[in-house]
Amino acid sequence: MSLADKLKDKKVLVTGVTGFVGEALLHRMIGDLPGTTVVAIIRPKGSLTGTARMAQLLKKDIFKPFYGEGTPYADAEALTADRIQVVEGDLSDVPALPNDLDIVVHCAGDVSFDPPIHEAFTTNVLGTKSLLERIDESRQGTGRTIHYVHISTAYTAGRRRGAIPEAPVDHFVDWRTEAEAGMAMKARIEEQSRSAVMLTKFRKDAEKLHRRAGHLTAAADTERRRIEWVAKKLVETGTERARSLGWTDCYTFTKALGERVVEEFAGIFPTSIVRPAIIESAVESPHPGWIEGFKMAEPLILAYGRGELPEFPASPDSVIEIVAVDHVVGAICAVMAREPELNKPEYYHIGSGARNPLTFEQLYAGIREYFSKHPFDLGERGAVRLPVWKFPGGDSVEAMLRYGERAHKIADAVITRVPRGERTRKYARELDVQKRRIDFLRRYMDLYSEYAQAEMNFVDDNVLALHNALEGDDRTKFACDTAVVDWPHYIQEVHCPSVTESMRRLDVVRKKRNKGLAEAAGVLKKVAPEENTEVIAAFDMDGTLLSSNVIETYLWMRLPELDGPQRIGEFGQILRRLPKLIAAERKDRGAFLRTIYRRYAGAELAELNHIVDEILAEHVLERLSGAAVRRIREHRAAGHKTILITGAVRPLTRPLEPLFDEIVAAELAVDDRGRCTGYLSGPPLVGESRAAWIKHHARVRNIDLSKSFAYADSHSDLPMLTTVGNPVAVSPDVPLFRAARAARWQIVDWKTPSTSSRLELPGVNAR
Amino acid sequence: MSRPGFVLEVDDRTPPLIVHNGEGFKLERFPLGTRVVYPPEALPPVRDVEEAIQNALLNPIDSEPLPELLTAGMRLTIAFDDISLPLPPMKKPDIRQRVIEAVLELAAQAGVDDVEIISANALHRRLTPNELRDIVGERVFRSFFPEGKLYNFDAEDRDNLSHLGQTRHGEDVEISKRAAESDLLVYVNVNLVAMDGGHKSTSIGLASYKSLKHHHNSQTMIHSRSFMDHKASKMHHSAWRMGEVLTQHVKVFQIETTLTNNIFGGPIEFLQKREWEWSLKDQASMLATKRTLDSAPAKLRHKIFSNVRANYELSGINAGAIEPVHEKTLEMVHRQHLVEVQGQADVGVIGVPYLGPYNVNSVMNPILAACMGMGYHFNSYRGNPIVRKDGALILYHPVPYEFSQLHHPSYVDFFEEVLSESTDPATIEAKFEKQYAEDPWYIHLYRTSYAYHGVHPFYMWYWISHCLDHCGDVVWVGGNRKTVERMGFRSASTLQDALEMVSHSVGRSPSITYLHNPPHLIADVR
Questions:
Q1: Residue B419, min C-alpha distance to chain A (Å)
Q2: For chain B, N or C: smaller number of CB within 10 Å?
Q3: B130, B362, B444 ranked by CB distance to A658: nearest
Q4: Candidate from A617, A627, A757 with C-beta closest to B449
């Protein structure tokens, strides 16, 4: 009797039908089990109802042969009406189920290896329990026998070694206690993150980076750090709890506990537990190489193909238990038709290691062979150099990675402290790429090293028996003997081509885009006049329009009026305070400016103005970047309002007055005799105050900020840049460079003409 | 007696020859048969400068002696050539200082109080106080500058310009009001090369944009063949017509001075000697200089060169009415610069030196480099250009992307915005000139800072229009590829490559003429 006949007129509830295995199962049931009705629990997502999601699912290529011409169904809707019943609902709160179910296949689950502990328990343990309770409720009054098929994982065996039998996992952990503790962690960790100690730490870390930009920017980063910390802690807690009890991670741990829940219900339902190993792309059905989304090995395969995986902490001889998804689905169908007795749950291992082992070394060789023949085409630099793995063992790979992480940290500390410049930014970008790779390696090594070094061997006698019991052409339709797979062929001809295909397509797009980006990089679009609304263009001065800084300009202003020895004295004093000043500048720009401006005490404002007009003007103009001036003038020509916002003192901006409609600068307070008091008449406009000024200005003058422009060079200008629709980072420092790249802002390099010299002081040694 | 200039034909005994190459020089082996034009050696200088000046002032040509023109209560204006002359700047005392002091002396004797001294810089940048001081000397500077009686001409100061009428060709003559309303205008010139002086002094040096645009445009300048020969230069014709109008309104007493070719002294004297005559000392200083320059960072190299001061001695001085004075002056200039060259060549070679009229105390940007090579040196001819029509011109200069934002703010914009659209002088003129000339920011910088007028880069580009029109190929040896390409030229790494590149139009074994200047020369091409 064929499976189709055995399962004829059965109603099968499938959970997780939108997942990888669920989808394949649905495909097989529609195609090869014509008499069976599928009941699918689908969670509404966003604006899509469960029914709509099912309709979407059926539009995928693999389902297309089931409806339309030459089939009994006119379209997807007709197919659904006849074969599928959708139950809207979520496994965290299982809805009432139809009361005529014959079989339940539970393949929904959290497939991530490192879920936060509470989520792992919710889906894998508590979710399973409530599903089972609902199933039980649905048969109340009917007394039906419902065959419950639970899809688990072979790795519920955890860190055990050797042959793993198709039997309950041997452990004495009480799932109720664990679930309760695990669920409580969420609140505990959340609470902990809000303690004064932790908050102080987050704030201090955030301020180290963002204090210059202002308190609000720092606060936003503090909160981001807290949330990030909570998420990380929840994952960490899960992993550690799992390891303390002998499992590799929270996923396998909760899956094992989930089996215990299922076993408790084995007295109510005939129960089968199916434990696939690592499920990868199909060998035959729906078509060779079919895979949905990225599973376990794909990110690593792709990373290797891109030359970004220098080594892996695997034992070359450890067996990687890969199974093709169609074998898994075949086994599930066969299991559905074989109902065990009550209280005697049956276990099925779907692995490949027992009879057709694939060692890590063979896998590596296969992938390497594939990429040698079909390298990724990454731009103009030719094929990627593929790393050669020596399998030095987990510890040395770990040491390598740790070394890399430490080196990166040091390099990063250096790069954020050295003077800015094109080269610094180039290094910063390279460092960021490096960092991404290191993070990737760290994540996958932590996740997978356990699996890659596993020394387990899953006994699969039950599955083999299932396969052998298949009759007629069921043997090919529902094949579940994994020994037939020819690994080199599977890896090189089936799996790798399939998983790299989308990446190759993406590469073409990316290449085109990068080419466009490279051509547009550093080239600002021409500005156009705005018809109905006023637009501003705000410019920072020091570092943006001309290379200068507050200390330098202070010296320009003060030295000309001093005589020789006084000059040396003033210079010496500044030099002595330089380290302190630099430290202050990194921390709080406002305070730094005040310290410098304090030194103007006693100077006559009129005299300062005079010095600027007579001596400094040419110096300032000589240092102006030509590109910057062109841009300002372009804005003016377009009718935009040009504004100079600077922390520099007002007299210094005098040479630039004709370029701007408005200049906002630091005003030196003067006494009744016109002498500077060393104070400012208002707080200096830095960091968030600039943003606030611009916002206020825009409100009052009816300016459209989304169409406005801002140009600045330093991290402290981040808030100002964020307020406008067209921010431009000009020769940015590393933190702003990173922020600008992340936000995809324009980055330009406005160079001060090479003809000006930093060592020439106007009125002192310049001609 | 000094030796006249001559044309050397390169043979296998000819050593490598000096080629000026921006802030540095090269030693180049030219193909056999290349003709190298050497300037005449320095003429014997005037023995007693003071005496010569007095003599010129007291015995002027076609004019009353200066003392007779000076009366108490009159308005006297002295105008002088600005910092663009001479090149390189001369050692102190500047010849203009000596002449101005002599004029002031006579004026004081005559009881003239109302004296103003104006730098005739037209649309050139203002001179800094220090630069003014270097030209007129400490004494004159101190007595006139603080009171505002020594100043730069401002071509954009509408209140202080005076429209004197139009020439018979309808050209406006508009000059400094002070000069126009003076009882006597004394012009003190330095006639470094043949294009200077004559009516060009006042009617260009003290003129406004309105007046200048009549001859500083692509049409006129393409037909100025060459600038060094005022009789064959449309620009000069226009200036001469303006001079006629001007002299009807203003009494001008023109003082023209000429200088010897004694430019390089001290350790770089070898630059003005003929290579095969270098003494051991010359060879040693050449090697030392070359090594130093090759290894010095750009800024130091710039410093070394900008500190060069030329020896320049006075070779002659003439005063009186403009035209006869200029005749005499040209005679002297020609004696110093003219070299007879037989026939044109397929290929002309020019080494562009570090300095041109518009980058004194500044850097030579790409546009100025082009102007220096293709405007000045190419035009250093009388009769015919050294290159045949549609021949090739090979220039030496690194052409770095380097602009002084202080002195040449409109140049960098011209380079980025104008040249990226077109390199054709006439197109550029029609499309962009007005916008740049009237731009308030450039005018502001011209008037208050030390910037060349917004329109000045256009004039540079018009300067080269004759060369652009005449030459089929222009190749820069060792030029920055990007900047050279932006200007519409090509760049080669070596002379051999450059010759290879132009071989499609001049053949495999073209005739070559190399202008070995500075020291200055005019090729009298027969």
A1: 15
A2: N
A3: B444
A4: A617
Residues in a beta bridge with A349? A275
pLDDT at A762: 62
Q: How far does B127 lie from chain A, in Å, by closest CA?
A: 12
- Strand-strand pairing, B522-525 and B381-383: parallel
| Residues on chain A touching B298 (C-beta within 8 angstroms) | 754
State whether B67 and B210 are in the same domain. yes
Would residue B316 count as lying in a domain?
no
Q: What is the pLDDT of residue B126?
A: 94
Tell me, what CATH number does A17's domain have? Answer: 3.40.50.720
Specify if A295 maps to a domain.
Answer: no
Residue B86, preceding bond cis, omega within 30 degrees? yes
Q: If you measure CA to CA, which chain A residue comes closest to B299? A: A755
Is A626 an 8 Å CB contact of chain B?
yes
Q: Identify the CA nearest to B517 among candidates B402, B386, B410.
A: B386
**Residue position matching structure tokens 């006439």:** B426
B448 and chain A in contact, CB less than 8 A: yes
pLDDT in tens, A24-71: 999 999 989 988 999 999 999 888 888 889 988 999 999 988 888 888
Please say which residue of B259, B284, B318 terminates a domain: B259
Contact B409 A629 (CB under 8 A): yes
How crowded is residue A88: how many other Cβ atoms within 10 Å of its Cβ? Answer: 14
Last residue of a domain, one of B203, B238, B259: B259
The mean-pLDDT minimum among A316-330, A367-381, B14-28 falls in A367-381
Do B285 and B410 fall within a single domain? no
Shortest CA distance from B363: residue in chain A? A755
Range of the domain at A663: 536-748
Q: Which of B510, B229, B526 has its CA nearest to residue B349?
A: B510
- Are A371 and A383 in contact by the 8 Å Cβ rule? The answer is no
Average pLDDT over residues A498-524: 81
Asked if the interface predicted TM-score (ipTM) of this complex is over 0.90, the answer is: no
The full DSSP string for B199-264 is THHHHHHTB-HHHHTTTSSHHHHHTBS-TT-GGGBHHHHHHHHHHHHHHHHS-EEEEEEEE-S---
Spatial strand order in the sheet of B35-38: B6-9, B35-38, B512-515, B345-351, B387-396, B473-477, B490-492
| C-beta of residue A279 within 8 angstroms of C-beta of residue A23 | no
Rounded to whole angstroms, the Cα distance separating A718 from A505 reads 36
User: What is the span of the domain harbouring residue B272?
Assistant: 265-307
Predicted confidence at residue A379, as pLDDT, reads 63
Among the partner residues A621, A753, A767, nearest to B403 by beta-carbon distance: A753
Q: Residue A335: which pLDDT band, with cuts at 50, 70 and 90?
A: very high
Q: How far apart are CA B72 and CA B87, in angstroms?
A: 37
Provide the residue count of chain B. Answer: 526
Mean pLDDT, 10 residues at a time, chain B of 526 residues: 89 94 94 96 94 96 95 96 91 94 96 96 94 95 95 95 94 95 96 92 93 91 87 92 94 96 90 93 94 90 90 94 95 94 96 94 95 95 94 96 92 94 94 94 94 96 94 95 96 96 93 93 93
DSSP string, A632-657: HHHHHHTTPEEEEEEEEEGGGGGGGG
- Asked whether the predicted pLDDT for residue A710 surpasses 90, the reply is yes
Q: Which two tokens stand for residue A368?
A: 């390497």
Task: State whether B290 and B346 are in the same domain.
Answer: no
Tell me whether residue B150 is in a domain.
yes
